[in-house]
Amino acid sequence: MMKSSFDVIIIGGSYAGLSAALALGRSVRQVLIIDSGKPCNRQTPHSHNFITQDGKTPQAISQLAKEQVQAYPGIQFIDAVATRGFRTPEGFGIETEAGAAFMAKKLLFATGLEDVMPQIEGFAACWGKSIIHCPYCHGYEVRGQKTAILANGDVAVHMATLVNHWTKRLLLLTNGPSSLKPEQAALLKNKGIEIIEKKISHFEHYQGQLKKVFFEDDSQLDVPVLYARIPFRQKSGIPEQLGCALTENGLIVVDQLQKTTVPGIYAAGDNSNPMRAVSMAVAAGTMAGAGINMEMISEGEAVAH
Ligand SMILES: Cc1cc2nc3c(=O)[nH]c(=O)nc-3n(C[C@H](O)[C@H](O)[C@H](O)COP(=O)(O)OP(=O)(O)OC[C@H]3O[C@@H](n4cnc5c(N)ncnc54)[C@H](O)[C@@H]3O)c2cc1C
Question: Which residues of 21-48 are buried (b: 16+ CB within 10 A; e: fewer)?
């Protein structure tokens, strides 16, 4: 029978959560991982820039991690959606969508972010395949190709300058009037980057591979790759509900040990780090696992060997 009380509950069992679980399992802690199985990179066919796993599918990386983590007897994993957090005399409780409740002394949120897709037909189907967010993750594979950037203002200048390192065949799509300052527009033009201010009507693609961008004036652009920086929100509202402070950009505030502003609650991975990468999520998870274990040692929490 499943226990209902643990040392730590980790909400989110992807890279950050599994990495923390490994540190905690190896610290002989009793850990429950609650995961709804929707990591933000699930659509991308290959994950890059994480040593030993370069080019693997996102699922293969997390599957191997899951197998290794679950080899530790203190770790339990359930497929479920955590819907509510509450306080208990010993720490915290987490309720799931199915109505189950679990208790723990500490909580770790490794819940990631949800990318908010623009409502342009074809965008969501191409996301992670030919509409990409990060040159370090996917830029090498499409280097030198004709490439568009969907952005405006300061972000557009930053992205265009960065991506220009991987390809000189760049266009900037501002999807409406440009908000670039004259000197920013001049900088991009000097680099040979054309700025197109027309409103986009839809993206034509074949199985997520971008073919053309169509504009509202019925003109079209052949382009196989597009970079987009899109808004995001916290995937789980529970940290905020329990009082964890967020930054002005909507990330959970953490210190160097991944402690949030609420004692006993930690956060790791994309939900609290602007540098979104598997390696960074794994590193933050390791730090959180070690931080939680140290906190429990300092509170005199004994371990049954
Ligand atoms: C399209 C795309 C492609 C990418 N490609 C790369 C790449 O090639 N290389 C690279 O290094 N990085 C890449 N990244 C970034 C990388 O995917 C993230 O940095 C990484 O997934 C963050 O890990 P995480 O564990 O913090 O969050 P996630 O991997 O997003 O996982 C969060 C987990 O928490 C679960 N969860 C959330 N809320 C709840 C809840 N209430 N109850 C239960 N479970 C919950 C989710 O289901 C999910 O399993 C990419 C990102 C995107 C969007």
Answer: bbbbbebebbbbbbbbeebbbebbebbb
Cα separation, 22 vs 286, in Å, equals 8
Question: How far does residue 270's CA lie from ligand 1's centre (Å)?
Answer: 7
Structure tokens at 38: 């929707």
Output the residue whose Cα is nearest ligand 1's atom 27. Answer: 112
| Res 3: pLDDT | 82
pLDDT tens-digit profile of 226-261?
Answer: 999 999 999 999 999 999 999 999 999 999 999 999
Distance 25 CA to ligand 1 centre (A): 21
Token pair 């994480």: residue: 50
- 156 pocket-lining for ligand 1 (C-beta < 6 Å): no
Q: Name all domains of the chain by residue range, CATH numbers in brackets.
A: 5-115+231-298 (3.50.50.60), 123-228 (3.50.50.60)
Within 13 Å and on the Cβ side, how many CA atoms surround 270? 20
User: Does the C-beta of 128 come closer than 6 Å to ligand 1?
Assistant: yes
Task: Give 60-77 pLDDT, tens digit per residue.
Answer: 999 999 999 999 999 999
